[in-house]
Fold each of these.
Amino acid sequence: MANDPYSTLGVSRGASEKEIKSAYRKLAKELHPDANQDSPQATARFSKVTQAYDLLSDKDKRAQFDRGEIDQDGNPTMGFGGGGGRPGAGHGGFRADGFEGFGGESVDLGDIFGGMFGGRGGMGQGGPGRRPRAAPRGNDRQYRLSVSLTDAATLAKQRITLADGKTIDLKLPPGVEEGTQMRLAGKGEAGPGGPGDGLVTIQIQPHAVFRRDGDDLRLDLPVTLDEALRGAKVRVPTAEGAVMLSVPPSSSSGKVLRLKGKGFSRKNGTRGDQLVSLQITLPENDEDLSRRLDGWTDTADIRAHLGGKTG
């Protein structure tokens, strides 16, 4: 018989299930389309080998064939109405995890072809063995989180309320800035392939006294005339609370003092600085101060750098 399934697999009619499976594995590796992309003949033979294994791996179908009730394609032969054959029934189906014959016996194609094609089972890309496309996940849900400037600088934990009413605490990432997005896995909308994610966009609010300058924080600090003249220790706010700052004697307005590590957290784990600009504030209409300065004139040419003496 030209299309006899035993001949196609190269086994005898009395071959055991193990011998049939072994023969199919050997031929499938040799004839698989992924290994014979330029050989239509090999692809055709692979199809016949698979069809033959479909029939012989099913005990009932094999017995019907041996009795002459069905042909090599699984169709009823002339003169036999029984046997339960189905037209086209000789073609088994591919599953995502391998191949299944009519008798329910499973052959792991990943095991057969894994070493040859990088672990891909089935009939190659686009063929019957291609894994089904994953079910789509739900849509992502957008959130906006308003964060104070000082919290952003110190990476303080933030609490956010989700659409389902639940609240979670977020740890801000190093290097956070306006528009930074954080992803909350599985906190989006439901979908057949699982929920989407929550996307949290950070909005950093302006501060009453601090302003951001790259990774640094800037602060204008008022000081009195005597503090600037004689020097002093003054209380200065920072993002983490107040500290004492030493103002050097004879400090001018605009002098910048640096507090190391009191700025914004960087992506590498370090922090910027806090830059404190001194602003000398004179009392208004202070007659005592005026009397003390009566007759005294500062003769220093403080504007010489502007392009000439003044007088």
Amino acid sequence: MGGSVNQLRLTPVLCAAIGAAAGFYVLFKVPLHITVFILIFLTAALCFFRVLSSLCLQSRRLHLTAVCASVFAAGLVFGMCAAAAGSNELNAGIAENKITAVEAVLLEDPRILPNGTAMVSVSLTKCAGSGGLRANASGVITIFFPQVNAQKIKEFGRAAAVFAEGSLRQSNFGYSFSAVSLHVTKPAPPFERMRTGIRLGLIERFEGKPWGGLALAMLLGIRDNLDTDFTARYGNAGLSYILALSGMHLAVLAALITFLFRKLLGLKLSAVLSAVIIIIYCVLVGPMPSLNRAVLMYVLGVIAVLGFLPKSTVSVLSLSFLIQIFLTPQAGSSLSFILSYTALLGIVITGNALSSLFSGKIPDFLLQPLSLSCGVFLTTAGICIYTFGSLAPIGIIAGLIIVPLITVFMIGSMIWLLISFLPFSALLNFPMTLLYRFMDFTAAAAGNVSRISADFSAVLAVSLVLSFLIIIIDIKRSKAVLKPEAFL
């Protein structure tokens, strides 16, 4: 874990990702005249570095600076274009307050909410208003509809065409449609129907088990069967990230596949097989920004193992970010997307720096998870306080207990799924139930610890300062260790 200095080395792909992030999240929202000024300044700086590098042909540092400046500027423009492409504009052809019905295509599988309603994201195709008005429409909205319609809609699944009656409204989170009813007008294509059938079959197999709802959330991202109090306890303990499919869950699946096939196929072939199975798994689960990021990074990591990309986690993370906002720019504004990338950045940089600093002072079995948890907490603190209004530092400690147990729980769920058709599979019910209840008890105990409420700007400033201090101290320590070796 002492390679954090190398992780921070500026590379063209990292500079492009930094520029794209600045363009996507900051510059796109800045007034036009300020944006023009910044672009002029960057153009002047770019020209300056290019001239210097041409005059000093022997200076590798100046040449690298010129290249990094160029790709940063390109990334900035790329990020602004992606933000424009991902902005969701509603084109209805009818006044929004007069829309009473919509026709649309399901973009995801419907989800059941704790309040008894259901929701689904859709792409509009047509809309209708009072007086017989009808018009073609486009844009993405969220439809909230009665739970009584949910099971029928679930049977048709993603890509099915639907018709809903109700009213349209706008909020800070975009457009939503409150439907009094929702009906399927056209079934999904055959592939999507097959996918939906597999999902429904898996849901049915886990029904009736106390731990079945958590298994579905961990394996397929289906949280409808999770007990609402269970979810709330994890949220209060700062452990909500455990219930969302992400890199942690994918790592368990990939490790299991690699373990089973490594001796037979070797490291490279087993990694390729893992990538293929994981892509199929992602298609089955459906589009989720955090899971897509994990899948994309894993595939890029396999390509790096095969020797076609640099074996640098930061470079792979940067390339993944660029590809994802290019392919799905609308996902870049989602909370799960932002938290996914910032959390992993905290693991790779701040967490590794902490691990390097305290190496030898704390036992490794405790140091690794603790340093990574602290790194994630620091990099995501500002986002969490802005979104949820409070922080739960106890989650750092509780995660040390829950994360290893949830890994065991996932493996147990997979084993049960593989042997569920055998009579002795019932023997797994007791240990799985016991493990589920122990994790629930741990989360409930952690949730009783008071959360921290503070000003967003103060939390952001403190978390950034602490992160930079940790990184700088680690860099200086690493250089001090490496310097004597230069004379050997």
Amino acid sequence: MSAGRKLTGKVVIATHNSGKLAEMRDLLAPYGIETVSAGELKLPEPDETGKSFAENARIKAAAASQRSGLPAFADDSGLCVEALGGAPGIHSARWAGPGKDFAGAMSEIQRLLFEKKTSDDRAYFVAALCLAWPDGHLEEFEARVDGTLVFPPRGTQGFGYDPIFLPDGHKLTFGEMSAGEKHGLPPRGKGLSHRARAFVKLADACLR
């Protein structure tokens, strides 16, 4: 991958999601990057009007960078269920509603699959990352991890749809994995999650 603009100093993590914030801070920590969250800065959440994960990550990063005057790091990610035509996809958070009821959202996926009378349990997580600078410069990266759905949900680690997602080649769902198992980076971890895989691309371009 060609070198991108190097990220140094302080960066805004453009999320109000505590689970994503924890993962992003874990990923950035080894590089000595100081972080502050959009929530800590009391930045408003922009409307995610994009038609793709990449577009929504760009909207969030650019908004946080312009408002803070600092580089900003944003993620947009979601679960795509093949038998549901890729849903919930970019609407993954909306399926959980304003109360962030992911248990209800997982039940809805199970209900829809039952209605379809399908044996197709294939799914994948996508993560799009965007770094935005106040001058408008962007660096963008995307990755996915494939797997299958399991019901009932298993595990209380992670967040969102993690308890129903079993990544290919593994016996534990994301909900059963520790933070290190899910998104720890080499050499200590395997960089398994969609967010970790996208972050490896970002780190190669902007942090090394």
Amino acid sequence: MKLSLAIAAIVACAVFFYSCEEDKPVKAESSFGYIQEKILNRSCALSGCHSTSEDWAYAEHKLVLSEGNAYANLVNRDPANTNAKAAGLKRVMPSDPAKSLLFMKLNCDPTLSPNGYGGQMPLGRDPISAGQLEYLRKWIEAGAPEEGMILADVGLLEDNVTMCIEKEFTPLEAPPSGRGYQLAIAPFTIKPNFEREIFVYKEVGNTEDVYINKIEMRMRKNSHHFLVNTFDAKMPKKLLPNIDAIRDLRAGDGTYVGETVSQMEYQLFAIASQTPEMNYEFPEGVALKMPANQKMDVNLHYVNKGSSPIEGECYINILKVDPANVAHEAKAIFFDTEAIYLAPKQKTVVVKDFSFAEPAKIFMLTSHTHKLGEYFDIQIKGGTRNGEVVYSSNSWHHPLIKSYQTPIELNAGEGLRMIVTYNNTTDRAVRFGLKSDDEMAIIFGYYY
């Protein structure tokens, strides 16, 4: 399964927000009116974010925060995020900031990603100030009234002290001696208003063949994807990168670096994640085989839409298992299509079939599109279960990762069908491509 440019950018779905509406005046003096003016209008109710139901992200978050709509859509309303809803959160829970998803997302809450509640907000922009967050907290504690003034200083909303003073990033502790290996990507800088995608070729350090049954990863926030590849044996030796050297995909002016692009053509997928932390364990008796003296190409894509430089950093632990306990060798699934054309202001459904050349038992599936993807369904193709839907996800930003306790069993010649629904709310045609405003359609997972 050779990694094309599309595959190499599997989760290169960096989101850019350029519009910034001017503040609308408060129609009547009220605490919520000031929150609308100073917080929601400035950081949330922006084109492409939460301004109208026509925003490209609306299909995922189902939340409009424009004036006249925000209060009814927030207070005592269930979130669209299924994990947050199942946990009993509301978008705003009167009197309880800790149960209010809006407050959690604006508060840089560290539990967002581990609990599957989505990312911090505002996405791709500077966080709100400490004073603004404190005023929001006091308003929620006061019962989140729509009218009237709470007992809190409105001047807090003019505070410019940075809210998200990040706790010191803690590197992932290396595996115990003899238990596995660590790949570390040292801190690197992403300049303001820039997306930086790097590759670093690392030696694993295994002197003999090993089997891997668990993968741990931790990286600094603001990364839109983490990907680990190997290289096809057919790759020309002159293209092999130097060990531990950072290779940028784009130069400082945003143009592609030719040599890096050429190397990507020979990459083979191994590991991927869209969250700052990952802890994935293969089913009992199943493991990935890693040949002796393995080298792996780590790919990180960071987006900085703020006004100050940020740092990227990443640690990957690869944990091994006794070969005597391995009954099945895991193999990667990587199915994609580049036949994507999305007419402006239309919904489009892209369908493609894929077959296995050998019998396969699938134990994990997930999907990838960019921001115009509304729904991603996977059906079984062929055999007695032909047409059965085995995977569905309605989130491009946090796609479902589905593990199967009972593997999906397919015979040789049978396979999977992707059915992807896109909603192109823009005024331009959108095609397949690597950039954040292009589109992709990819199935990946593991089988044996």
